[in-house]
């Protein structure tokens, strides 16, 4: 039994195994309906319990479909219906009960502490479906999407992130170290990534460059990423932050600095950080990116259950 909480704690050989398994499984599903099981039914009878302390569309749908395609079932708990949320039951007791009734637990949370308390108290796999500091299932899936479209290992590509230093970027930084790809980050000086994460990346041979000019960050890149300037529960002066990022919007002009065949990715939902023509344009692969969450999360679930094939 393994947890899936942050990319940095998972050995690269396991991350690569997840991606390879997802590739194989995706191919095998060409003629199947959304809820048809994969032929080997690897998680037959298993129950995934999921809970969202913050809004979700893609993570909710993709985990539901993922476990169904592996022949298991899913149950989504409403936080406002649990004793936990009203202070009527402890997190540790909740963790023990979830471990008794379910076979895996996927949580989107507003607190890193909750994740670590749960990790200590759960006897079933715990999956981080987004926390204040990371979004590992999203980013591993994005590595899959990039390799699928570019048809080469991500280590041979230059990835560019222009935008806020948020949970998705943190996981992308971890992925860049693990998968050894070049990562250019473009953001205003006062919104640079977390110093201790950058220190960890440098210590582990990270190939990360930070720019305060979005054109320089985008130059010669194979992939341009962005995300909302204001993340969920971001308690800042929103109008000021959006103004601070006014030179970091992805426009067709910025896309021209990247390689001709560069792609645009965004985990969604979107705000005002990208123009409509880029978001819906030829280079945008955001819907393929969203759908791939299903395939990669299936293989993440199999990793957690110790059922990944080589
Ligand atoms: N990208 C992503 O995690 O989307 P949701 O917030 O809709 O789950
Ligand atoms: N950074 C965004 C990602 C949403 C999927 C947020 O945390 O709101």
Please tag this protein with its features.
5-stranded parallel β-sheet; alpha/beta; 4-stranded parallel β-sheet; 12 helices; single chain; binds norvaline; 14% strand; 310 residues
Distance between the termini: 17 Å
Whole-angstrom Rg? 19 Å
Which percent band covers the strand fraction?
Answer: 5-15%
The largest β sheet comes out as: 5 strands, parallel
- Write down the secondary-structure element order: HEHEHEHEHEHEHEHEHHEHH
From the spread of the alpha carbons, the general shape counts as globular
Roughly how much helix do the residues carry, as a percent range? 40-55%
Judged by helices, strands and strand pairing, the structural class is: alpha/beta
Number of helices: 12
Describe the structure.
- This protein is α/β, with parallel strands linked by helices and 310 residues long.
- It has helices spanning 12-28, 58-69, 91-101, 112-121, 136-150, 167-179, 195-203, 214-218, 238-244, 252-255, 276-279, 286-304; strands at residues 47-52, 73-77, 104-108, 126-128, 158-162, 182-186, 207-211, 223-226, 263-266.
- The protein is globular and about 50 Å long.
- The protein is built from twelve helices and nine strands.
- α1 (12-28) crosses α5, α3 crosses α4 and α5 (136-150) crosses α12.
- α4 links the parallel β3 (104-108) and β4 (126-128).
